[in-house]
């Protein structure tokens, strides 16, 4: 049996928690299911068992989350003690282990993206207080991908929403790992135009290196947004600003992530195109000064920044007009 139930058995319950300080307890209130929560076995919020209370104990929080789902507690998912999520009530590592343990679960994946999975996410937090979490909005905010400690109060405040999936549903999901580098790689490969998480939480101050932003992409995104604001802001106001604007642009120096593309891929794609745009089918508009060949631009169907391969199969030769349309149309 992967869990043990204690009802009106204070002695048995206290003996189990003393032998399993790293275990977990589902404190069940049948008369008030909103108070039913999962705690660490060492949590000071656990009280002695009353006649109406039930304690379900296990060495893994996932087991208790599954128990709660089976018994239809709290709309299908079991909330977790807020203090335990914040890393409080941690047990003494020198405590005596239990002589009889439930069957251990398989090791969790090195990185998990929790979507509409409150029980799984909260269980992961409880089991990995030394882990890292990145909160992701949908659609992703490219310049607000904040890395937190798993114990950070900023991401574990259950009072922010009363919905069934306040942390992993709707506009939010969570990317979790014991390795902050894996989270940075996930952001780089999954969200176009970013090099990793963009900020370290100022509240919990995770022990992880800052990731430099792709300044070129950041500047381009900001410029396009500024143009959109100008277009929507009215002609008179824009022309007034133009009359007062400096004629020389400001110069900035940027750090950027560059891909070392394979020249053979570009050459093969251009050769196969034979001087004709593979988008509109028209001949190249002019000849290149560098090569003397018809000028076409090689475009990756799946961008390299989104994990696309630098291969002939993933590339197409386009005229400048069709190429711009692919990026901005």
TrEMBL record:
Name any one Pfam family assigned in the record.
HNH
Looking at the keywords, is Disulfide bond present?
A: no
Task: Note whether Nuclease occurs among the keywords.
Answer: yes
Query: What positions does the domain HNH nuclease occupy?
Result: 264-324
Q: Which domain of life is it from?
A: Bacteria
Keywords, alphabetical: Endonuclease, Hydrolase, Nuclease
Protein's recorded name: HNH endonuclease
Gene3D superfamilies from the xrefs? 1.10.30.50
Instruction: Cite the InterPro entries for this sequence.
Output: HNH (IPR002711), HNH_nuc (IPR003615)
Q: Name one GO molecular function term.
A: endonuclease activity
Species: Caballeronia arationis
